[in-house]
UniProtKB/TrEMBL annotation:
SUPFAM superfamilies on file: Homeodomain-like
Cited Gene3D superfamilies: Homeodomain-like, Tetracycline Repressor, domain 2
DNA-binding region boundaries: 68-87
Any one Gene Ontology molecular-function term assigned to this protein's record: DNA binding
Species this chain originates from: Patulibacter medicamentivorans
Superkingdom in the source lineage: Bacteria
Sequence segments annotated as region (Disordered): 1-46
Protein name, entry field: Transcriptional regulator TetR family
Comp. bias regions, Basic and acidic residues: 24-44
Pfam families cross-referenced by the UniProt entry: TetR_C_46, TetR_N
Length: 241
């Protein structure tokens, strides 16, 4: 007696292959939600940014090493397998976050050039811009602050590299000021490195300051201004000596 071969069916009466196709269709719908009218490249970029934003949102309470690909994908509204269309791994996503974070820092530095109200106001204005930028990009700064010492070796290396680049750009920017323009390049780079180290410390203090205690932040700002003045004046005196 022959038995007709049949494809195994699920409890709902659908074949397993049909179920797979249905699930695949649902996955595609999830990825396309809200993307009507966008080109394929625009949809891809939107999903990529959603993954970056999802990771940053999770990093508010977790270190990067504690994040899983699955939870980031779920937060972004896509399936875990779709993640690999945008990033090779979680570390690859982390490296993009590092680049994105420091790109915003470089934009801050350039924007600051046009916000100095008067000669001699550079230090106060620079600290004010830094504090404002921390509040506008709090998640990025929190990510860098945590991962620069406690992250994976790849992320730590990338952050150190970006800090060096930022210091170099700051050194070039410092040469614009009359009080510093005659200093050798090596001295300008030293001053820039000290200022960046001070900025990192100030940023970490701002991130840890209670949001309902504005006087704490005011004290951090005042300290940062004093430290920056000491760095510049100390460098000038050291050079003169």
């Amino acid at each position: 007696m022959s038995v007709t071969s049949r494809t195994p069916r699920s409890r709902g009466g659908r074949s397993s292959s049909g179920h797979s196709r249905s699930r695949s269709s649902r996955d595609e719908v999830v990825q396309r939600t809200g993307d009507e009218g966008l080109s394929r490249q625009e949809r891809k970029q939107r999903t990529r940014q959603a993954l970056l934003d999802a990771a940053l949102a999770r990093l508010e309470d977790h270190s990067f090493g504690a994040l899983s690909l699955r939870e980031v994908a779920r937060e972004a509204g896509i399936t875990p397998t779709a993640f690999y269309r945008h990033f090779e791994s979680m570390e690859d996503l982390g490296l993009v976050l590092v680049d994105e974070s420091f790109r915003s820092l470089r934009e801050m530095l350039r924007a600051g050039r046009s916000e100095v109200a008067a000669p001699g106001d550079e230090i106060r204005a620079s600290v004010a811009i830094l504090v404002r930028h921390v509040h506008e990009h709090r998640a990025h700064f929190r990510f860098i602050a945590r991962e620069r010492s406690g992250g994976s070796a790849g992320l730590r290396t990338a952050i150190r590299h970006e800090i060096r680049l930022f210091s170099s750009e700051l050194a070039t920017d410092l040469a614009r000021y009359p009080i510093l323009r005659d200093l050798p390049t090596a001295d300008l780079q030293m001053i820039a490195s000290l200022i960046v180290a001070m900025m990192v410390s100030a940023v970490e203090s701002i991130l840890d300051a209670p949001l309902d205690r504005p006087e704490v932040e005011a004290e951090i700002r005042a300290t940062a201004e004093q430290q920056m003045r000491l760095i510049v004046l100390g460098a000038l005196q050291w050079r003169a000596g």
